[in-house]
Design goal:
single chain, 498 residues, alpha/beta, five-stranded parallel beta sheet, 10 strands, elongated
Length: 498
């Protein structure tokens, strides 16, 4: 994969001067066209051999284009804030919105590129590569244009460059011990990177290997590829017009769905409820004070039909916790800022650090529920979301984030009763809207979508807990029990490992 980048490519100074001006003008024009179209973002990942000019290339692109619509981010070892969350959290935070360009030094390749010393766990590296492939596939499906550049130097070129830099007092600081180590293990390192690039060389996000020994050639080559690729993307039909069709999900032959078999009615007196709730809240509070809780974080997801009691269950959880360790995130229709990003972006940024709990009142499952039923997402979009969501939750679990998911189920008749009660009671009227009444007309469609969702996203690491909620007292106790059980089980695993 690196053979064509060791041919001695070079551009003379006069040709470079002649071409640079034209390229700068064209890049500015295409950048403004990208901003005007405002349909997709561009992510440029710069990787390569040490001293091949990643920093120079990023600075040059910033100089050639309008820096107001371009952002550069570099990634070294994770800081404390980043280390307390899943590895990809820090990359999701800096994704550019539609119409903008982001330059990432290494990006999500930072770990396998610069953290590899030949002795790391191969399974960990393989798992990270698989997740990179899935991430880039998802970004491409969401319309993000990903451009990946490997700036290459042969062994001899790297040796000469390090020697020249080290011999000059003004540039000697640029040569690090890791650069010298890379040179000593050049053949071994290059084989590792060759394998990495081959495994992540996707149709929608291919690697572009550029010989970097001659800066003129490197600069023009990268600049032209950025220009031509954005031009090509802008010339294509809009993302909405390019939506791929998908075969429909087939309902069961007898019409019986998963949620149709759930028992909804349970008897429980108010006195028994209060006694059990007090015990469970004390249990949850104690678990949150466990020494090992500081090494974990918790996400609770609440979904269900309107008026199923999500808010009441959430308040019983938060009442048991110190307000400094939890946060409730209510999810409504996406804002303009959120619509400018892939749909999972607005959830990634709310991932709690270790020692904290975040409650999602509605969640990323909107893609396969409301967006499916209301037609906001095409079948191909919500169909692929099942796998994207499972991968997302698997990453959370790997990072010691416990994901506890609740579907609160009520009957059609019980929902109607609660709606009418909300309209009759003055201080409950804010809970009922015209849209809630309209959604009742799509009851069957939502039950169908929810049944598919539960079946396809209930995994060993993040199972769904189906809560019969016709009786609010019973539902709240069940929620508390499942949450306590999940947290207690993970804390016991932590203690055993210790």
């Amino acid at each position: 994969m690196f053979e064509s980048a060791e041919l001695g490519h070079c551009i003379d100074k006069q040709t470079y001067r002649d071409e640079e001006g034209k390229l700068r003008e064209a890049l500015l024009n295409i950048q403004y066209a990208l901003k005007e179209r405002n349909e997709f973002p561009v992510v440029i990942i710069l990787g390569g051999v040490p001293t091949a000019g990643r920093g120079e290339m990023a600075n040059l692109l910033t100089e050639w284009m309008d820096p107001r619509y371009l952002r550069t981010d570099a990634f070294g070892a994770p800081n404390d804030e980043e280390a307390a969350r899943p590895p990809f959290w820090r990359f999701w935070r800096v994704l550019p919105p539609k119409g903008r360009i982001g330059i990432l030094f290494g990006g999500w390749y930072a770990d396998p590129f610069w953290g590899w010393d030949g002795e790391q766990d191969a399974a960990r590296i393989d798992r990270r590569i698989e997740r990179i492939v899935r991430l880039e596939k998802m970004l491409a499906d969401e319309g993000v244009l990903v451009l990946k550049f490997w700036l290459h130097l042969s062994r001899g070129q790297l040796k000469d460059r390090l020697k020249k830099l080290a011999s000059d007092k003004k540039t000697a600081w640029r040569v690090t011990e890791s650069d010298q180590q890379f040179l000593k293990q050049y053949d071994r390192q290059i084989e590792h990177y060759r394998d990495l690039l081959m495994r992540t060389n996707l149709a929608d996000a291919p690697w572009r290997v550029v010989e970097a020994s001659d800066s003129n050639y490197r600069n023009l080559s990268v600049g032209r590829q950025v220009l031509e690729t954005i031009e090509h993307q802008l010339a294509r039909p809009s993302v909405k017009q390019r939506r791929v069709d998908a075969p429909p999900l087939v309902s069961s032959i007898d019409g019986v769905r998963l949620l149709d078999r759930l028992k909804l009615d349970y008897e429980l007196s108010k006195d028994d409820y209060k006694k059990q709730l007090e015990v469970l809240q004390g249990r949850l509070n104690g678990l949150s004070l466990h020494p090992k809780f500081a090494e974990l974080s918790v996400i609770t997801v609440f979904e269900g039909m309107d008026a199923a009691g999500k808010g009441g269950s959430i308040r019983r959880i938060t009442a048991a916790l110190d307000a400094r360790v939890y946060r409730v995130v209510p999810i409504a229709a996406p804002s303009e800022e959120e619509r400018a990003q892939p749909y999972l972006w607005r959830f990634w940024r709310h991932i709690p650090p270790h020692g904290h709990l975040t409650v999602f009142d509605r969640s990323w499952y909107g893609r396969v529920l409301v967006e499916r039923v209301e037609g906001f997402a095409a079948p191909a979009e919500w169909m692929r979301a099942y796998n994207e969501i499972n991968d997302f939750e698997d990453q959370l679990d790997d990072a010691n984030v416990i994901v506890v998911k609740f579907w609160l189920a009520i009957s059609n008749q019980e929902q109607l009763r609660r709606f009418e009660e909300r309209q009759a009671v003055e201080w409950k009227r804010f809970k009922i809207t015209d849209e809630d009444w309209r959604n009742r007309e799509k009851w069957e469609a939502y039950i169908e979508a929810a049944s598919d969702m539960i079946e396809r996203t209930s995994t060993p690491t993040a199972p769904w807990h189906l809560i019969a909620a016709n009786n609010k007292y019973h539902a709240r106790l069940q929620v508390m029990r499942h949450l306590c059980d999940a947290l207690e089980a993970r804390l016991k695993r932590k203690e055993k490992k210790a």
